[in-house]
Write a structure and sequence with these properties.
Strand order of the largest sheet: 7-6-5-8-9-11-10
Structural class: alpha/beta
Shape: globular
Helix content: 25-40%
Strand content: 25-35%
Largest sheet: 7 strands, mixed
Number of helices: 9
Radius of gyration: 18 Å
């Protein structure tokens, strides 16, 4: 039997509203709207409950050399805490502008304190990008507010700065909303910044779309990606093989490799 959602926390500061509710063992974060920003199964706090968060881990399909990840936007911290728990070879920096979000991610969503492998910084993510070029093996953008993606997180200049923040073999990962009327505009800007080295991974209908941009084209041979997906699934409870099928369905390919 389904239970009604139960609000377990609400904080308001400087016109920012952060709420946490719980239903059927799933705890969710909201930022001043009915849109779920992050969800966690209380009995498995380090698992990735939402499909889009598992999709963002798709960068593992394209590289086994990722050693540092920069994330702009913490939310409930699903992906950062997953990486911290299950990818010990990766160091992370997370930049979050809202101190309420940082506090609640730690108090209600089991996000760990800073240590040698995780550094959560309260600050302006765009300013951080501009001051840290050529620094990230993977750059993740998951920056939503109560009305969607902030305008300064989807401009051409912003995506250009994302490309500049990556190392030579770096991978850009962004969570977009597929039904956003400006989705095609955002995608075209990403393609311009990454010289068309871009792949789309829809994770719902219409739902979230994870977009990958590459500084250099990785190995996109489908047979190799399939083998890597199977290997990754032995270590992670993430549907990498299914994601590869969706990548083939939604991006150009010739049955041998993605383009």
């Amino acid at each position: 039997m389904l239970k009604f959602s139960r609000k377990i926390h609400k904080s308001v500061a400087n016109d920012s509203i952060v709420e946490v509710s719980e239903s059927n063992g799933i705890r969710s974060l909201y930022l001043g709207s009915v849109t779920i920003q992050s969800s966690m199964r209380v009995s498995a706090p380090f698992a990735l409950e939402l499909a889009y968060s598992r999709g963002m881990m798709g960068f593992l399909l394209f590289s086994d050399k990722v050693r540092n990840v920069l994330t702009i936007g913490l939310g409930g911290g699903s992906v950062p805490k997953y990486i911290h728990e299950y990818c010990p070879e990766i160091n992370q920096t997370v930049v979050e502008i809202n101190p309420q979000v940082i506090r609640i991610a730690r108090s209600h969503f089991y996000v760990p304190e800073n240590d040698a492998r995780l550094n959560i910084i309260e600050g302006d993510g765009i300013a951080y990008l501009l001051n840290h070029t050529n620094s990230a093996d993977v750059l993740m953008i998951d920056a939503f507010d109560s009305v969607g993606i902030p305008p300064n997180f989807c401009s051409q200049d912003f995506f250009d700065s994302c490309e500049a923040a990556l190392t030579n073999q770096g991978i850009f990962v962004i969570n977009l909303w597929g039904s956003d009327k400006k989705f095609d505009i955002y995608l075209q800007r990403i393609e311009q910044s990454f010289d068309n080295k871009v792949l789309m991974l829809p994770t719902g209908r219409p739902g979230n779309v994870v977009v990958f941009g590459f500084k250099q084209v990785p190995d996109l041979r489908i047979a190799n990606l399939h083998a890597r997906a199977k290997m990754l699934e032995q270590a992670h409870k993430i549907e990498f093989s299914s994601f590869l099928e969706k990548l083939c369905e939604h991006n150009p390919h010739d049955n041998k490799q993605l383009f």
